[in-house]
Structures are given as structure tokens and as C-alpha cells.
């Protein structure tokens, strides 16, 4: 059992060993089973050299040697270079039946007998009445004349054994159009490789083919494009005599026309019948021609050509039939010609690509066939399109504009309008993309504005819905975003440092040249520090979204973006971070900074390693929002934020009403006082002539209190509330306290919950603007930051941030007044009175139990 397993392995591995013995050449040969190895002397060569089998007394020497047994055999040559004198044949027999062949994939061994000329012979035999079939892997085989040779020196020959003797079907090289050859009944396939040539064979397949219809059937796949191929009849040099058929089946690519020519024809001497050429075309029409007639030309589709010999006279000086069949393939269609003249459109270049690899499109530029046509700027080109369906072609145009230098005097002059120029009307290809490359030279900035109205960034939350999409990118290839001009746009200006590319592609239309623009206006300005600056003015009664460049993908490493947000008078902006990606930095930090534009007043900033709260920042005046990225280690930095503009409700009316209210109150008090004085003249009176309200904390001289009303009940008035207090039950209680500290840029530790102990008045405490910065790091921790990405509703709702008392009540109006007063203290103090709605009384209970009422330095400062 063991032996039978090991033996084939050995046969496979140790096939050849060469030992040099002085003057002699000794090799050990183990033939594969079923293989015969035959050494034979070349004719008239080295008569004094012999090949010997075995060693010692049993050695036999001869001029040739046949090895049939699959066992190691010592073969000795008594000359040093037997390869010059001997050749090796390696013969295998392959028998096929309906159930298959003894060998299916024919693969000659590549390392054997390199110093000999080798001939591999496969003797094939199938059932009678059948043909043996050889399938050649792509790229197939090419037939050559005997006088020709193959470039890779691998020559294949096919022979069929006829009653009259062997007949050469043909000689072939690798790499051609023949995919299959079928030959009648019995034959031999040979592969000849000269000595010292590495074997690199095609592993063809053998099978039992169809019933006999001809002596030889050759299947040919004609390739695309212009080409011409030759095929030869058996025994082409001497001709063949038997009354047999040779059939070629040609597969012709669509959109191609074929033409058959017979460049060489030697007729036999027919004793019976005639030589005929039968054609069957793809549409099943068939016709017969004599070889001397004109053969089919400029036809389309697959076809077969069957050559039938007559019964020819066999005699020494009478040639047999030999025919060279030439098939020429050309493109069937007529090309469409046009011209692209870009000499008058500065910086404009065109590219045309065929997007359908299956199509038969053939494009040429100035009569040279090209895969992709590029017409460089400033040139004129003749284009030709053959069988190119317009929908397969993609025309893209690029216009390079050198923006005026920032230092040159034409800066700030009429901005350029980006509109698509009219292309040559003979160019019928629809324009699929137009790109402007705006180049700035001396480190300038490109300013983009809308030609009408403002720009809008197209985001999933608010899409542009335009016929075209407009992509603005930095020229390092990173996108900033998609934009459109829209009446309700909010972006007044986009400033981009360095070179910019702007790409227009159709969205709902087919051809961009229907939509010429102008799409944008371009100007240049001096260099900015950020990579991108947006100047935005949010819509009154609407929201706008701010997305970092390349959102939702990350910003470029170490890049920055700033939004300059113009808040109109009597409005406040509510800024909410609705989607912040989480990342870790390799070096540096991401930073989000908010600050007033007038550079007076407080800025707030957060880094990626600090908490980022999911609430709302309110700004009563124009401000900037600045975001800069670090060198990320993992993940990326992308922020989507939202600005909502709200009217500072009825401010003037409020003031008037407040004044009237106070006057009325004073009047009533005065009346009461007068009445009381009149009624009780002798009673002593408390001196309560003034009410001072420093920064919203009511202060009444003396010990007296005002009567309380429900709305003013101090049980829902808080001097300040910080987020952990309010949302502490939602947050991770185990979070170390340090995480919560110092996230404000000014590092203030403020806003600890402090139950309101002072006397209540009829004026609800004002909301200091700084108290409305809910991004305050103390309120969050890592968990809060994570939940920011997908904020739960409970996280958004409880925070009061808009006028808390029903509008129009005296209390509300007064709040505004107090607020105005507070505003002047804003940069100093951080007292943050917030009045909770009754809904939050539940929360209040929890907060009261957590009464960590620290000192109020900021309050004292404010005093
Ligand atoms: C090799 O052997 C043959 C027969 O044994 C002999 O005739 C021939 O001379 C030898 N050649 C050399 C080179 O020894
Ligand atoms: C096959 O032939 C074609 C043209 O005859 C040639 O361009 C190509 O390089 C050849 N390929 C190989 C693998 O020899
Ligand atoms: C290709 O063949 C078709 C059909 O036979 C014919 O109409 C067309 O003119 C031919 N094309 C050329 C270039 O001859
Ligand atoms: C813009 O592109 C031009 C040409 O490619 C280059 O010379 C120039 O340095 C680029 N400008 C910037 C700011 O990168
Ligand atoms: C925004 O941040 C960048 C990078 O830190 C800085 O260069 C730039 O001056 C900042 N802009 C504003 C308006 O703060």
C-alpha cells in the first residue's frame, strides 16, 4: 500500500538527475506511467556517440533508446554534449470514449531534458465516427505556414492518420484566434521545443467531440477591431487529395464586418466532383462559391466556411488542393466626425471617456484611436466616434482660471462669474461634468459668493433640490461640500485658502450645457488663517445647518473652519451641536471656539478630550464659531451644528409696558402710602423708599418682603443651575470630578446649584447670556459626549432656554430689563438665574437634596 502511494510522488519529483562523468553524460530517467521516452540521434549527427541503458555488464548501447517502464533507469551518453546529437520524444497515448478521455488536461512537464530538443507527442484516439476535440485556452492558437516559426519557439503540429497516410492538419503557435480544433478519429498533437528553451506550454484540453461532419473543424473567435488572419488547408505545402471537407466556424464581433479572401489557391486535378466553398451566414442564409470566384465581402455576423475537395488525382508532380483563407475584419459603422476648437476659450480642456467597456465605441483624436480623448487647452482637434452611443460617452470639461493676484491692483474688481462656456455645437456628446480650477498664486484666498441671493449647503437635512449639483473642493482633492444658490440660502460668502476646484454635475438633467449658470461669483482676497471661512446670516424664523468641510466625513487633519454668524438686531441665535464625531488625536487637539465678533467679551472653547455638551448656546449678537482639527489618530473630526434665530420678543413694547407697569406700581404704592398716612397719621413708618436689584437678585432694604404670587414663588426660582445638577441622574455618577472642571475657556467654576433663599419679588430672575452656554464642560462627561451623537429626547428637553414666563406678562418684561442690566456685567460675573417651569418641579426635588451651595464670588464681584 505504502509503495503505491509513494511511487507516483517520486515519479513526479525525481524525473531527472544529471551526473557528469568524464567525457560521458549520465542521467537517470524515470518515465511517467503511460509515457514512452525515446532518445534518437538526429540524422547524420555524431556517429561516434551512443546512448546506453543501465550500467555494468547488462549495459546496452545503441544509436537510440526507448524507455517504457516507469522505473528509474540510468542513461549514459559516451559524449559530453548529447543534446547536440540526440533529441528526446515524450509520447503519451490518450484514448477517449463517451465517458471521457484518459487524460483531459494536457500539461507537459516543464523541467525535463532542457539540454535536448524535445518533442511531446500525444496520440489521440476516439470512438470511430467521432472527432477528437482540442480546446485551447485564451488567447488561443494561430496557424502558421510550415516555413514560419513561432515567436516563443513552441511549435504545435496536428496530424491526422488517414487511410492514405498521415495528413498534417496544420502548424500552430500560441496566442491566436483559434479556440478549438476537431479532427477525425485518430491523430497526434505534437509540441516541439528547441534545446535550451524553457517549456511554457498551453495546457489544452482533450475531449471526444461531435460526430464526423468534416475531416477538420476549426473554431475561430475573431477579435475586436481591425485585424486580418490566415488559415491554411491540410498539407498546405504539398496539398491534399482526398475528397474531404475542412470547415471553419468564425465568430465575428458585433459592429464588425468581415471580408473573405483567398490570397493563394492551388487547385487539384479533380477526377470526380468539384472544389466548392460553402458559406453559412449568421442569419442562416447559405450559398456556395467556387474558390476562384469573389468571396463574401463586408458582411456582418458569424459565419462558417466549408471547403470541399474533389476526388483529386494523386501523382508525383500533380499538386493537391491548397488554399490560404484570409479573413479580414473591419469596423462596420461609419464614424461621426467633429472638431473641438479650444483656441478661443482660455484654460478650457476637454476629456471624453467611454464609460461602457462592453461597447464597440472607437474614438480617435486626430485619426489616432484612443481609449480616452483629452483635448488640451488652447488646441484644436479633429475627433471621430465610431459606434459610440452618446449615452456611453462622458464629456467632462475643465477650465483653469488663474485668479488675479492678491497683490495686483485688480483685486476686488468685478468678480468673475462661473458660467459654462458654449462648446462646439458639432460635439454632440452631452456634458457630464464641468470643473473650474481656480488657482491663486501668492497664498491668496478664493472668495465665493452666489450670483443671486445666498448659497445653501446641500445636506441630508436640507437638500438643494437643484438641476445640477455644485461641489466645492480644495485642490488637494478634499471636498468642502455641495452648494447651490437659493433664495433661502444663508451663506453669504465662502472663503477658501489656496486653490479651489468647483465641479458641476447634472442631477436631474442629462446635459450640463442646458444649464449654463452662472453658478458662482469668484473674487480673491488676502490669505486667511483658516482653511475655510463661511460668512452666514441665519434666516429669520428658520434654521440653518453648519457642517464642517467634507461632512459627514472628517475635516482634513490640522485644518480649521470658521463661521462668522451675523445675528440681526433684536434677535438671538441659538446654536446647537447636533452631530459631533468622536475621535482621538495623534498630536494637537480639536478645538471648538465660540466668541462674539466684536472681540469684546467671553469666548468659550472645547477640546476633543473634554466634555461636549448636547445643548444650546445662545448668542445675542453676531459671533464666530471656529473649529480646528488635530492630527487624528483614529476616526475623524466632523461636526454638524444648527442655528435657529429667534426674535427677542416685543422688546420695545416690553420696555414700554415695563415702564408703564413700574409707574403704575409706584402710583399704586404711592396711593396706598398716601391713604395709609392719611388714615394712620400717628403710626411710625418704615423707610422703604428704594428697591435695588443688583444683577437680578432682588434686594429689598429692610426686612420687609413683598407678597408672593404663585408665579414668583421661589420654589421654582434658581439663581443658577448647572447641568450635572439638572441632569445628574442621567449621567454617569462615577465620573471623576476633574473631568467636569475647567472646560470653560476662562476656567470659571460657577453655577453650582444654590437654592434661592432671598426674598422673592415680582420680577423673575433674568437669564444671563453666559448661563445659556450649555456646552459648559461641567455638565458633561464622556457619556454625555457619546450620547451627543444620538441625543435622547430627555437630554434635550428639560433645559429651559427661552422666555420662561408667558410673554407679555409684566414679569417677563421686567426680566428683559434686568437682563439688559446684567449684560454689562457679563464679562465679569456668571450669575445664572434660571427659572424652571413647573414641569421641572420633579427635578427640583432631586436638586435640593444635592445642595452644594458654594460661595458666590462672581456675585460679589458683580456687586
Ligand atoms: C561510443 O560508443 C560507441 C559504441 O560503443 C563507439 O562506437 C563510439 O566510438 C563511442 N564514442 C566515443 C566518443 O567514445
Ligand atoms: C499575442 O499577439 C498579439 C498580436 O499578435 C500581441 O500584441 C500580444 O503581445 C501577444 N501576446 C502574447 C502573450 O504573446
Ligand atoms: C458593414 O456591413 C453592413 C451590413 O452588411 C453594411 O451595411 C455596411 O455598409 C458595412 N460597413 C462598411 C464600413 O462597409
Ligand atoms: C495653486 O496651484 C498652482 C498651480 O498648480 C500652484 O503653483 C500654487 O502653488 C497653488 N497655490 C496654492 C496656494 O497651493
Ligand atoms: C480659529 O482657529 C484657528 C486655528 O486655531 C486660528 O488660526 C484662527 O485665528 C481662529 N479664528 C478665530 C476667528 O478665532
Automatic annotation (TrEMBL):
Keywords: Membrane, Signal, Transmembrane, Transmembrane helix. Residues 104-208, 432-509 form the CDCP1 second and fifth CUB domain. Residues 222-316, 530-644 form the CDCP1 third and sixth CUB domain. It holds the Pfam family CUB_CDCP1_1. Residues 26-96 form the CDCP1 first CUB domain. Residues 1-24 form the signal peptide. The chain crosses the membrane at residues 652-677. It comes from the Eukaryota. InterPro entries: CDCP1, CDCP1_CUB_3rd_6th, CUB_CDCP1_1st, CUB_CDCP1_2nd_5th. Residues 757-776, 839-863 are annotated as: Disordered. Residues 848-863 have a biased composition (Acidic residues). This is CUB domain-containing protein 1. It comes from Culter alburnus.
Amino acid at each position: 500500500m505504502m509503495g503505491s502511494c509513494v511511487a507516483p510522488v517520486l515519479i513526479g519529483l525525481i524525473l531527472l538527475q544529471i551526473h557528469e562523468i568524464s567525457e560521458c553524460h549520465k542521467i537517470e530517467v524515470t518515465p511517467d506511467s503511460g509515457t514512452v521516452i525515446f532518445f534518437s540521434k538526429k540524422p547524420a549527427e555524431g556517429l561516434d556517440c551512443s546512448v546506453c541503458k543501465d550500467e555494468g555488464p547488462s549495459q546496452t548501447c545503441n544509436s537510440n533508446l526507448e524507455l517504457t517502464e516507469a522505473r528509474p533507469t540510468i542513461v549514459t551518453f559516451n559524449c559530453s554534449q548529447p543534446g547536440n546529437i540526440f533529441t528526446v520524444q515524450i509520447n503519451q497515448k490518450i484514448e477517449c470514449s463517451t465517458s471521457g478521455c484518459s487524460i483531459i488536461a494536457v500539461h507537459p512537464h516543464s523541467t525535463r531534458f532542457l539540454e535536448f530538443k524535445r518533442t511531446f507527442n500525444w496520440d489521440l484516439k476516439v470512438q470511430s465516427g467521432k472527432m477528437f476535440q482540442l480546446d485551447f485556452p485564451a488567447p488561443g492558437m494561430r496557424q502558421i505556414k510550415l516555413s514560419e516559426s513561432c515567436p516563443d519557439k513552441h511549435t504545435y503540429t496536428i496530424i491526422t492518420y488517414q487511410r492514405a497516410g498521415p495528413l498534417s492538419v496544420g502548424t500552430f503557435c500560441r496566442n491566436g484566434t483559434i479556440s478549438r480544433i476537431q479532427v477525425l478519429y485518430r491523430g497526434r498533437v505534437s509540441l516541439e521545443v528547441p534545446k535550451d528553451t524553457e517549456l511554457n506550454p498551453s495546457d489544452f484540453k482533450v475531449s471526444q467531440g461531435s460526430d464526423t461532419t468534416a475531416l477538420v473543424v476549426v473554431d475561430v473567435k475573431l477579435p475586436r477591431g481591425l485585424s486580418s488572419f490566415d488559415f491554411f488547408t491540410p498539407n498546405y505545402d504539398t496539398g491534399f487529395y482526398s475528397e474531404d471537407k475542412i470547415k471553419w466556424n468564425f465568430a465575428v464581433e458585433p459592429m464588425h464586418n468581415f471580408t473573405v479572401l483567398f490570397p493563394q489557391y492551388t487547385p487539384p486535378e479533380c477526377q470526380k466532383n468539384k472544389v466548392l466553398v460553402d458559406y453559412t451566414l449568421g442569419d442562416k442564409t447559405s450559398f456556395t462559391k467556387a474558390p476562384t470566384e469573389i468571396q463574401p465581402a463586408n458582411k456582418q455576423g458569424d459565419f462558417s466556411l466549408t471547403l470541399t475537395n474533389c476526388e483529386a488525382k494523386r501523382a508525383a508532380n500533380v499538386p493537391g488542393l491548397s488554399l490560404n483563407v484570409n479573413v479580414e475584419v473591419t469596423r462596420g459603422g461609419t464614424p461621426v466626425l467633429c472638431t473641438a476648437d479650444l483656441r478661443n476659450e482660455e484654460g478650457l480642456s476637454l476629456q471624453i471617456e467611454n464609460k461602457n467597456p462592453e461597447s464597440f465605441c472607437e474614438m480617435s483624436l486626430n485619426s489616432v484611436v484612443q481609449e480616452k480623448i483629452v483635448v488640451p487647452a488652447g488646441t484644436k482637434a479633429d475627433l471621430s466616434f465610431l459606434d459610440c452611443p452618446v449615452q456611453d460617452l462622458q464629456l467632462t470639461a475643465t477650465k483653469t482660471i488663474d485668479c488675479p493676484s492678491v497683490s495686483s491692483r485688480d483685486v476686488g474688481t468685478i468678480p468673475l462669474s462661473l458660467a459654462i462656456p458654449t462648446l462646439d455645437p458639432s460635439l454632440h456628446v452631452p456634458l457630464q461634468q464641468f470643473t473650474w480650477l481656480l488657482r491663486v498664486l501668492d497664498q491668496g484666498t478664493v472668495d465665493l459668493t452666489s450670483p443671486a441671493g445666498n448659497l445653501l449647503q446641500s445636506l441630508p437635512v436640507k437638500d438643494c433640490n437643484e438641476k445640477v449639483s455644485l461641489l466645492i473642493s480644495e485642490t488637494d482633492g478634499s471636498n468642502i461640500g455641495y452648494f447651490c444658490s437659493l433664495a433661502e440660502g444663508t451663506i453669504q460668502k465662502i472663503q477658501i485658502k489656496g486653490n479651489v476646484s468647483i465641479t458641476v454635475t447634472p442631477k436631474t438633467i442629462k446635459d450640463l450645457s442646458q444649464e449654463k449658470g452662472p453658478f458662482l461669483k469668484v473674487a480673491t482676497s488676502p490669505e486667511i488663517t483658516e482653511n475655510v471661512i463661511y460668512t452666514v446670516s441665519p434666516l429669520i424664523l428658520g434654521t440653518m445647518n453648519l457642517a464642517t468641510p467634507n461632512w459627514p466625513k472628517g475635516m482634513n487633519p490640522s485644518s480649521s473652519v470658521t463661521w462668522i454668524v451675523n445675528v440681526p438686531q433684536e434677535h438671538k441665535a441659538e446654536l446647537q451641536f447636533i452631530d459631533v464625531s468622536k475621535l482621538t488625536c495623534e498630536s494637537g487637539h480639536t478645538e471648538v471656539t465660540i466668541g462674539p465678533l466684536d472681540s469684546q467679551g467671553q469666548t468659550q472653547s472645547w477640546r476633543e478630550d473634554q466634555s461636549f455638551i448636547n445643548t444650546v448656546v445662545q448668542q445675542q449678537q453676531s459671533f464666530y464659531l471656529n473649529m480646528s482639527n488635530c492630527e487624528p489618530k483614529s476616526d475623524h473630526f466632523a461636526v454638524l451644528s444648527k442655528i435657529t434665530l429667534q426674535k427677542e420678543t416685543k422688546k420695545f413694547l416690553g420696555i414700554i409696558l415695563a415702564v408703564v407697569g413700574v409707574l403704575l406700581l409706584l402710583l399704586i404704592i404711592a396711593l396706598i402710602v398716601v391713604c395709609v398716612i392719611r388714615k394712620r397719621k400717628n403710626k411710625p413708618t418704615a423707610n422703604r423708599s428704594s428697591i435695588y436689584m443688583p444683577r437680578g437678585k432682588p434686594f429689598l432694604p429692610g426686612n420687609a418682603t413683598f407678597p408672593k404670587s404663585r408665579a414668583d414663588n421661589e420654589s421654582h426660582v434658581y439663581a443658577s443651575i448647572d447641568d450635572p445638577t439638572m441632569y445628574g441622574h442621567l449621567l454617569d455618577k462615577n465620573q471623576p470630578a476633574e473631568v467636569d472642571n475647567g472646560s470653560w475657556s476662562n476656567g470659571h467654576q460657577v453655577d453650582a446649584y444654590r437654592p434661592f433663599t432671598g426674598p422673592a419679588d415680582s420680577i423673575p430672575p433674568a437669564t444671563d447670556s453666559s448661563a445659556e452656554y450649555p456646552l459648559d464642560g461641567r455638565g458633561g462627561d464622556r457619556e454625555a459626549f457619546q450620547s451627543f451623537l444620538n441625543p435622547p429626547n430627555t437630554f434635550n428637553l428639560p433645559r429651559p432656554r427661552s422666555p420662561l414666563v408667558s410673554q407679555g406678562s409684566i414679569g417677563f418684561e421686567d426680566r428683559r430689563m434686568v437682563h439688559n442690566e446684567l449684560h454689562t456685567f457679563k464679562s465679569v460675573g456668571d450669575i445664572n438665574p434660571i427659572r424652571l417651569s413647573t414641569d421641572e418641579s420633579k427635578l427640583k426635588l432631586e436638586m435640593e437634596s444635592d445642595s452644594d451651595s458654594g460661595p458666590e464670588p462672581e456675585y460679589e464681584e458683580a456687586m
